[in-house]
Write a structure and sequence with these properties.
single chain; alpha/beta; Rossmann fold; 2 domains; seven-stranded parallel β-sheet; 19 helices; 16 strands; about 45% helix; about 15% strand
Length: about 450
C-alpha cells in the first residue's frame, strides 16, 4: 500500500516534472534533450556484439568478442550527477577488469552528470537518463537494457525501480552508500516505504559504520562497511602536468583556490577577499560547482571591481589578475595541484560540503566550512590529523587563508598529512567489488 500511494504521488507530479525541466532549461538548454528516456522511451541498443561459439554436440558459449551476435551483456551503474559520476571512476576500472566482455551503462538524472561521464569515459560506456520512478517506465528500462546487475551510487532510493529489479530478478546494490542524520530522519518519515526499498536491495556497501547503522535502522539488510571509493581516485599524470603548467603561468605569487563553490558562497568569499586583499598580489582561483553558473560568478567578481580572467580564455594569467574563474570541466585535480591551499565549497553555507579527498590526495592544505554532513567522517578525520582546518564564516576563511599563504612550513605539514590521510583509506573499491561478486550467481562451468 505504501508503494501504491507513492506511485500515485509520482504520477501526479509528472506535469510538474515537465515544468521543472523547462524551467531548468533556461540556464541549461541540455534539459530539453533526451526527454523520452525520462519517460521510458530509449534509443536502440547498438552496443558491440559478442559472437557465440557453437559446439559439435549442441550448446553455445558467449563472451567471445565478435560482431555477428547478440549485444554485449550490460552492467548498469546509476550516478545521479557530477560527484557520483566522478566517484565511480575506480569502480568502473575494477568492473572492466572483472567483466572484460561486458558493456557498462550509466544512468544519470542531470545534464552535468551526463556531461561528466562523457568527459571521463567517452564512448566506452553507454549513458541515458534514468526514467522517472513509475512502474511502467522502470520495467521498460529493464526489458530494454537487460542488465546483469545494477549499482546505485551513494543515496538514490527509488522504490518502484527497486521493486522492478526484484521482479525481474536483477540484483541491485547500493554502493558507496552514505546517509546523513538529516536524510535518515527524512526517510524515517516513510518507514514502510523505506523498509521495503532497502530490503529489496541485494546488498549494501556503506562508506562508514555510522552510515551502515543508519541504513540498518531503516531496514536495510546485508550491509557491509566498504569505505569511500573516492579515496581510490588517482590523479591522471596529465592532470598533474597540467597543474604544473597552471602554476608556471601564475608566477611566484601566493595562490589559493575556492573549489566547488555553491550559489551564495561566491559573493561572501569575494566580499571578504576584497576587504582584506593583501598587497602581495595573491591570486584567488574560483571554481563554481555547476558549469551553468560560470558566467554568473564571473560577473559577481567583475561587479566587485576585481580584475578577472577565465580559464576558458586559454591565455596566460596576467600579473594584474586578481580572480581567475575556473570555468572548465574535468580539471579539478590540475587546479588542486597548482595552488598553495584550497577551500572546499558547499561547506560555507548549508549545502553539506563537497569532496575534500581529491585535495588531500594532491597534498594541498585544506580549509573547510561548518557544513560537512555529506563528508562528515572524512572532514572529522582530515581536521583531526592536521590535513584540514575548519573555518566559521567568509571573513574567517580569508583570515586563515592569508595566514597559511604566509607560512610555507605549516602548509608543507598539512599537505603531508593530507597525503597520508588519503593513503590510509584506499581499498574501498576492492571491498565494494567483493560485495558485488558475493551476490552474483555462480557462472556456469
Amino acid at each position: 500500500m505504501a508503494r501504491f500511494l507513492y506511485t500515485v504521488v509520482v504520477v501526479a507530479l509528472l506535469p510538474w516534472a515537465i515544468l521543472h525541466l523547462l524551467w531548468r532549461s533556461r540556464k541549461q538548454p541540455e534539459y530539453l534533450r533526451h526527454w523520452g528516456e525520462r519517460f521510458g522511451v530509449f534509443p536502440a541498443v547498438t552496443r558491440p556484439g559478442l559472437a557465440c561459439r557453437e559446439f559439435p554436440f549442441g550448446g553455445r558459449q558467449s563472451g567471445i568478442p565478435g560482431t555477428q551476435s547478440e549485444p554485449a551483456p550490460t552492467l548498469w551503474l546509476h550516478a545521479v550527477s557530477v560527484g557520483e559520476t566522478r566517484a565511480a571512476q575506480p569502480l568502473v576500472a575494477a568492473l572492466r577488469e572483472r567483466y572484460p566482455h561486458h558493456r557498462i551503462l550509466f544512468t544519470h538524472m542531470t545534464p552535468t552528470g551526463r556531461a561528466t561521464s562523457e568527459a571521463l569515459f567517452g564512448d566506452t560506456v553507454d549513458r541515458i537518463y534514468l526514467p522517472y520512478d513509475t512502474p511502467w517506465a522502470t520495467r521498460r528500462f529493464l526489458r530494454h537494457y537487460r542488465p546483469e546487475f545494477g549499482l546505485i551510487m551513494e543515496t538514490e532510493l527509488w522504490p518502484n525501480l527497486i521493486a522492478a529489479c526484484k521482479e525481474a530478478d536483477v540484483p541491485l546494490y547500493l554502493v558507496n552508500a552514505r546517509l546523513s542524520e538529516r536524510s535518515a530522519r527524512r526517510y524515517a518519515g516513510f518507514p514502510a516505504l523505506a523498509r521495503e526499498a532497502l530490503q529489496g536491495l541485494t546488498a549494501v556497501g556503506a562508506q562508514s559504520a555510522d552510515d551502515a547503522a543508519r541504513l540498518e535502522a531503516l531496514g536495510a539488510g546485508a550491509v557491509t562497511v566498504t569505505g569511500n571509493v573516492k579515496f581510490d581516485i588517482a590523479a591522471a599524470p596529465g592532470q598533474l602536468e597540467l597543474g604544473g603548467a597552471f602554476r608556471a603561468g601564475y608566477g611566484t605569487r601566493p595562490i589559493w583556490l575556492a573549489a566547488s563553490t555553491r550559489e551564495g558562497e561566491e559573493a561572501l568569499i569575494l566580499d571578504a577577499w576584497r576587504n582584506a586583499l593583501p598587497g602581495d598580489g595573491a591570486l584567488l582561483v574560483l571554481v563554481p560547482r555547476h558549469p551553468q553558473r560560470f558566467d554568473e560568478v564571473a560577473r559577481l567578481a567583475q561587479e566587485r571591481g576585481f580584475v578577472v580572467q577565465r580559464r576558458s580564455a586559454a591565455a596566460a594569467v596576467a600579473a594584474t589578475t586578481q580572480v581567475l574563474i575556473g570555468d572548465s570541466m574535468g580539471e579539478m585535480f590540475a587546479f588542486y595541484a597548482s595552488v598553495d591551499l584550497a577551500f572546499i565549497g558547499g561547506s560555507l553555507l548549508d549545502f553539506g560540503g563537497q569532496n575534500l579527498i581529491e585535495a588531500a590526495a594532491c597534498g594541498t592544505p585544506i580549509l573547510i566550512g561548518p557544513s560537512t554532513r555529506n563528508f562528515a567522517e572524512a572532514a572529522r578525520e582530515a581536521i583531526a590529523c592536521g590535513a584540514a582546518r575548519s573555518i566559521g564564516d567568509a571573513d574567517d576563511l580569508v583570515r586563515q587563508a592569508m595566514l597559511l599563504l604566509g607560512n610555507a612550513e605549516t602548509r608543507r605539514r598539512m599537505g603531508a598529512a593530507g597525503r597520508a590521510f588519503a593513503g590510509r583509506h584506499r581499498g574501498a573499491t576492492a571491498r565494494t567489488l567483493a560485495v558485488i561478486t558475493a551476490g552474483q550467481r555462480p557462472e556456469p562451468s
